[in-house]
Amino acid sequence: MRNNATDNPGFQNATFGLPAAGPVRFGTNGTVKDGETTTGFGFMGHMVLNTASDGSLNSLFFAEPTETDNIWALVWNQGEDKDVVPVTLKDQPPPNLRQ
Description:
3-stranded antiparallel β-sheet, 10 strands, mainly beta, disordered N terminus, single chain
């Protein structure tokens, strides 16, 4: 999934990558790591999903606490870990945050 937004040049041409399991990341200049998924993203309504190789739709995003208080890492497919919290990625803010 590429983000070509001109209003945030730090993310221009960044590539969103999902590992098999672990922290998600943005690769700069289209770089990806071995085994990362960078395709198959889509929306169901406003929710971000990924299509697996078997055709199933997945939303396996979780927030995982870091060593810094009140800072969480976005991770993929870590549902077995006891400290993670399931999250949903959406393309819109909650209604009470819209301007």
